[in-house]
Amino acid sequence: MYLVLLSTGQCVCFHYCRYELRLSLGAVPDDLYCNTTSDFFGCWNFTRAGTAMTKPCPYLPGFNTKEIAYKNCSENGTWERANYMKCRMTREIEEDLNKEVLNAFRHIYISLVGFSISITLLVISLFIFFKFRQLRCDRITLHKNLFISYLLTAIMYILYNVLVIMDGDVLHDQPIWCVVLHVVTQYCVVSNFAWMFCEGVYLHTIMVKTFITGKWLIIVCTVIGWVCPFVLVGVYTAVRASSKDDNILCWHQESTLQWIMYAPVVASIFLNLIFLCNIVRLLITKLRQIPEAGQTRKATRATLILIPLLGIQYLMFPIKPAEGSNWEEVYLIVVALHLSLQGAFVSIIFCFCNGEVITVIKRKWTLHRESTFTSKGRYRAPSTIGTTSYTLVDHMSGVATSVT
Q1: Where does the G-protein coupled receptors family 2 profile domain lie (predicted)?
Q2: How confident is the model at residue 10 (pLDDT cuts 50, 70, 90)?
């Protein structure tokens, strides 16, 4: 394994040396220089005779990257053996480095666990939505697509973190598949936000427009949710592929070109915030027409339920703390928990706590018991327990808002 690392490092250094040669102005003709060269661990550029070239220690097992390696160029213009003695770590330094690596990947480990939980709950939710015909309606169709986008995002995040982020060799070698993985991950993320926006568009439209066909809305939302992100990510991919500065390290480093995708995402979140405010206003207006106590509580509950559905909570993380600060690690952990468990929260609220879903499953279970066992007496239907119904309104023409 160590030899494989060395050969890979040598190959990378060789290509990097060639790249540096193209950028270098070269040696002064009248002076004596040692020519550029490379070894197993590093690339050494032109160096004046009688001097030494220094560089940080390479990223290799057992090496301390905070130390300096050097290589002397003799008076006659020939290289001496490179000295990597300071690069070798003591046991204490190696233990400290292992702690630093663990801290660096802590938020990734947290997100992997969170995404795994979300995948499990999303798969169960989608099975329920597709299994029971009673749940086939426009609103559930939107939820299906939203859940699928959450599921794809979680899967791609896990693959990208495990195969790329946690493998330094992949980042440096930059095989084409890691760039493709980055692009597909970005598409899933943008599509996820697009379907959150579709949920806002759908709710707002059916509450504002009295006569509107659900099929037309589903077609529009399908274009917004799956086609528009493809166009945005396609433009981003084409522009970044033609950029020399941003076309490195599997495109993992942040780039201003990402705003080609993220600017519409941010705009959609703010639009959903506007939709939410207007939906709550209309909801309160409708609830005031119902002579029943506790309408304010119901409106508040409906607002809280809609926040994760529309992605409004992402506005809570606008600015990342300065790199290296004490708040940065807290920020990364909180964001990792929120991002990875978002799919789980939505599944719990809009599937497992959905009154319609619970009713359908209860009815199915009752029919199963009646068909399987022979009872001497008649079965009594189970009593209805308190559930969370998120159906705000189906049509303005006559469906009372229900938030119980």
Answers
A1: 16-91, 107-354
A2: very low
**Structural domains of the chain, with CATH:** 2-97 (4.10.1240.10), 105-353 (1.20.1070.10)
Q: Is 36 helix (H, G, I), strand (E, B) or coil?
A: coil
Q: Are 122 and 114 in contact, with CB atoms under 8 Å apart?
A: no
Give this prediction's pTM. 0.70
Task: Quote the tokens at residue 313.
Answer: 């909570």
Contact present, 301 and 392 (Cβ < 8 Å): no
Contact assessment for residue 41 and residue 67, using Cβ atoms and an 8 Å cutoff: no
Q: Is the dihedral of CA 264, 269, 274, 276 positive or negative?
A: positive
Total residues belonging to the chain: 404
State the CB neighbour count (10 A cutoff) for residue 180.
12
- % helix / strand / coil in the chain, to the nearest 5? 65, 5, 30
What digits encode the pLDDT tens for the residues 19-76? 444 445 444 556 788 887 777 666 788 888 889 998 888 776 667 778 888 899 998 8
